[in-house]
Write a structure and sequence with these properties.
By secondary structure, the protein is an alpha/beta fold. It has eleven helices and 14 strands.
């Protein structure tokens, strides 16, 4: 019989499991706390449980954990990139970013990605598989244990398209924000998507208080199709409709991610188009100087173009920031460390 991945079960599901194996429901609180607060990696560490119960747990369940295989720390110490190995020897990336307001972790939701965005290293090898809720959680848990510091913000913006792994993503969010676990505020969680419209609407109906970030990267369909194959399926107007629906259900401001690529989408004309596109929507534009990768010929926009683009948006009263570059000296951009590790292997 295949053992159940107990770390992917939510609090109510663990209560059910304890009943199934003849234990009192209160044992669920103890087990859940060991897994999601004390962050243990084995049943033997659950010291307030009887030996008989620990043996029962060992016989029926498994604790999935990620193992650190590589780590790079930026010169200023603000950014650490981790490469974690999964139970099947596949590898994923996570990033710890230290800010004055707290520690933020960027996690992966899939091994590889099938979305094919032209400027992203994550998608070069295609999609291998989706991550379970426990594998997403454990990236945060291991980083907390390694750093010895609490994580206060989580962005699901690493390798993979989160909404392409919908059920595991929602289970992960609910468990991460559960009062029995790390109890991170839903408002401190951001989920990024390249725009899977049906899933955006489905997520809106969950009525979570997370921030939705749309990887937009172009103000019109023609330009977006050059950069993102997913634009052949979903038009920008469909994405904007889904965003309006999301806002109507959650009242959460939408973030639009816009990677600036030299000579492709960083001109005055594109800036004005973007203004028209988001006018009247409660949103925030996050401008991202694109990270060059050797497999693609895209180049980061000149600083003057980046500033000019931002100025145009600000003059039109659009909420905009330029993402601070962190960890560029350690290949902290999505997919870079994983790819170099696999290539070297």
């Amino acid at each position: 019989m295949e053992k159940i991945d107990i770390k992917s079960l939510n609090y109510d599901q663990i209560i059910e499991e304890m009943t199934k194996i003849g234990e009192k429901p209160f044992r669920a609180k103890q087990v859940y706390e060991w897994l999601h607060v004390k962050l243990v990696d084995s049943f033997d560490e659950m010291s307030n449980l009887s030996k008989a119960l620990r043996e029962k747990l060992e016989a029926n369940y498994k604790i999935i954990r990620t193992k650190e295989v590589a780590k790079r720390v930026s010169k200023d110490g603000s950014t650490s990139k981790f490469l974690f190995e999964l139970y099947d020897n596949r590898v994923i990336e996570s990033v710890l970013m230290k800010y004055k307001h707290g520690n933020s972790v960027c996690i992966s939701s899939q091994v590889g990605c099938r979305m094919g965005c032209r400027f992203c290293a994550s998608t070069l090898g295609g999609l291998e598989r989706c991550l379970t809720a426990s594998e997403m959680l454990d990236q945060i848990y291991q980083i907390q244990k390694i750093s010895g510091e609490r994580v206060s913000n989580v962005v699901v913006m690493g390798t993979g398209e989160p909404l392409d792994n919908y059920d595991n993503l929602v289970q992960f969010v609910r468990m991460l924000t559960d009062e029995h676990g790390l109890n991170i505020s839903q408002r401190n969680i951001t989920v990024s998507t390249c725009g899977l419209c049906e899933r955006i609407k489905q997520l809106a109906d969950e009525e979570l208080q997370i921030t939705l970030a749309i990887s937009l990267h172009a103000p019109n369909d023609e330009k977006r199709r050059e950069l993102m194959p997913v634009a052949n399926k979903y038009s920008i107007s469909e994405i904007m409709d889904a965003c309006k629906y999301y806002y109507s259900k959650t009242s959460r401001r939408i973030t639009f991610e816009y990677s600036l690529v030299k000579g492709v989408n960083d001109g005055q004309e594109q800036a004005m188009e973007l203004v028209q596109l988001v006018k009247g929507l409660n949103c925030h534009i996050n401008l991202i100087p694109v990270n060059p990768i050797k497999e693609r010929d895209y180049v980061q926009s000149d600083n003057s173009y980046i500033q000019n683009f931002k100025n145009i948006l600000e003059k039109k009263r659009i909420n905009v920031t330029i993402r601070r570059e962190m960890g560029s000296d350690i290949d902290a951009a999505c997919g870079q460390l994983r790819k170099s590790y696999i290539d070297n292997k």
